[in-house]
Specification:
The strands form 8 sheets. Strands 23, 26, 27, 29, 30, 31, 32 and 37 form an 8-stranded mixed sheet that branches. Strands 24, 25, 28, 33, 34, 35, 36 and 38 form an 8-stranded antiparallel sheet that branches. Strands 2-3-4-5 form a 4-stranded antiparallel sheet, with no helix packed on it. 5% of the residues lie in helices and 46% in strands. 48% of the residues are buried. It starts with a helix and ends with a strand. By secondary structure, the chain is mainly beta. A hairpin with a 2-residue loop joins β2 and β3.
Length: 546
């Protein structure tokens, strides 16, 4: 009866938490005075796409090798967003994505609503064009369908025409095909499940400032077909709008958004929406180096049937980004919330902000109904860079503090666990068993993507907190609080034995982005390969604060 009562309390607690929206302590774009500040999502939701369905907005973004993939965010006003689920819980083939396949997988998806169903299309540049669909964006999505098999296709968007015919626009990846900077259009069957025509090049950005054109989105407005896409490169690029009376062109083109005198660099690659309140908006990314590609919101003004994005110029059609602007009009009630960050692990499931660095298997770790998350020490002789069991989330702001309370339980030598800032350069603060004691160590690697070596530095010797003897193997454990401070790309670590007095330790570290993603924060547990029983960390909570 006691177990049943405790389980019921946990379920009720989870339902109560789910009924409340998360409020960030480190970034809130809604200023509360009828205006907002960019970025509206200060986290790495790169290549965002957004749709309006009635009075609701839904957003997805690139997820590459991270699992679960294809995050689904919901908003009522384009400024306040919450994570409501993921559309992809496993990546194929297992032979690739059971490992840390950095930079591979899901590239630049598009989300659409057609005949009562939500669709997401994306390009896997090594396998082809894929699609998933559902009637409930916060629920279970169907298994992926391969729409077009082959290499090199990226950044795909479908368009169902008024007559029921379906078209698909795509870009091409130079690293797979040895050509790029062209936009192509295919015709699909009416179900959008396979191509029924060969691709047609409708735009060529080679040999001019429109090089690196990619990330196209397909729309139809007032009888015109529109392709909106970025060009010019990630950091310094801009947004193009193209229009035609035929889906296969020819298209005329204008630049409609660029940095200009704004401090928002490379504003491009995103989604246009027409709201139920009659307004037009464009969501795009801004590249912020180690923080990844954050999401900004611009008003859209139609000028001579061209979509000028952001601040309208006195002459021409190329807008510039706003840092602040008035909130979109809302039909109904707006929900004040932010994407989830902290996790108390009080529910028997992970928070939706968490992703693994490869396909998930239960032996990585599991949620509990006991008020903590258990992460097992992954057995490998490879570097952390090659470890798929990393439990990570996006950085939420330029400046923040992460504090976690955990218990390291070790059954053998050299088992360790702790917190990490993960990227192509990474650094972790871990508790590691050596003899019958623990060491606090900083593990750092530079140029991990180029086979850089890990270096470990012993910061403190810790007496074990306690020991247990069970049927399987004797264990010792350490209860500790670990902390990381992030300010303008610089990272420092600290620890505490009582959660009150923290001591700074280790070398400062400069954040570095991952492969096509921003640096990520989270948890690591690892040990050398072997046949001994795993250790683990029981993570009581993980909190993101100022």
């Amino acid at each position: 009866m006691k177990k049943l009562f405790c389980t019921a309390l946990v379920v009720l607690s989870c339902l109560s938490v789910n009924a409340q929206q998360y409020h960030s302590q480190v970034w809130n774009p809604d200023k509360g005075d009828g205006t907002y500040v960019n970025p509206v999502i200060n986290a790495d939701y790169s290549d965002p796409d957004v749709i309006a369905v009635g009075d609701d907005y839904y957003l997805t973004a690139s997820s590459f090798n991270c699992v679960p993939g294809l995050p689904i965010l919901h908003s009522k006003d384009l400024v306040n967003w919450e994570i409501i689920g993921h559309a992809l819980d496993h990546l194929k083939p297992d032979s690739v994505f059971d490992h840390s396949a950095h930079g591979m997988g899901v590239w630049a998806p598009s989300i659409r609503y057609h005949n009562g169903e939500f669709y997401i299309y994306w390009g896997d540049p090594d396998r082809g064009v894929f699609m998933v669909k559902t009637k409930d964006p916060a629920g279970k999505w169907e298994d992926p369908v391969c729409v077009i098999a082959g290499k090199g296709m990226e950044d795909t968007t479908p368009l169902w025409d008024d007559n029921g015919r379906c078209y698909l626009v795509s870009g091409w990846v130079n690293s797979r095909t040895h050509f790029a900077s062209v936009i192509t259009v295919w015709e699909l069957n009416a179900e959008g499940t396979k191509a029924v025509s060969a691709p047609v090049i409708v735009f060529d950005g080679n040999g001019n400032e429109n090089h690196t054109c990619e990330g196209p989105k397909f729309y139809k407005r007032n009888g015109w077909y529109w392709i909106m896409c970025p060009a010019g490169g990630v950091e310094q690029g801009f947004e193009l709008a193209m229009r035609s009376k035929s889906p296969f062109g020819p298209y005329e083109c204008k630049k409609v958004l660029a940095q200009g005198n704004s401090d928002i660099n490379g504003p491009h690659q995103g989604g246009w929406v027409h709201s139920s309140a009659g307004e037009d908006w464009f969501m795009h990314f801004q590249d912020k180096g180690p923080y990844g590609r954050v999401v900004c919101l611009e008003p859209v003004t139609w000028k001579d049937n061209w979509p000028v994005m952001g601040r309208v110029p006195a002459k021409g059609y190329c807008g510039t980004p706003y840092r602040t602007y008035h909130m979109p009009k809302v039909v109904g009630t707006s929900l004040k919330c932010n994407p989830q960050e902290s996790d108390e692990f009080d529910c028997p499931r992970l928070g939706l902000q968490w992703q693994w660095h490869g396909n998930y298997y239960p032996y990585f770790g599991m949620a509990t109904s006991l008020g903590f998350f258990r992460l097992y020490t992954y057995k490998t002789n490879e570097r952390i860079w090659d470890t798929p069991s990393l439990l990570l989330q996006k950085t939420p702001a330029d400046n923040f503090t992460v504090t976690t309370k955990l218990k390291m339980v070790s059954k053998d030598q050299n088992q360790y666990g702790g917190i990490i800032m993960m990227g192509m350069d990474y650094s972790a603060l871990v508790v590691k068993r050596v003899g019958d004691k623990f060491q606090l160590e900083q593990i750092t690697c530079h140029h991990a993507d180029k086979n850089g070596k890990e270096e470990s530095k012993v910061l403190a010797i810790l007496n074990k907190t306690g020991e247990d003897e069970d049927h399987y193997q004797f264990a010792i454990y350490e209860q500790i609080y670990l902390q990381m401070y992030v300010k303008d790309g610089n990272l420092a670590f600290a620890y505490s034995m009582d959660g009150k007095k923290f001591k700074r330790v280790g070398d400062e570290f400069m954040m570095h982005e991952g492969k096509w993603i921003g640096a990520k924060i989270g948890l690591v547990a690892k040990e050398p390969a072997g046949k001994t029983n795993c250790g683990w960390i029981d993570v009581d909570w993980f909190r993101v604060t100022k």
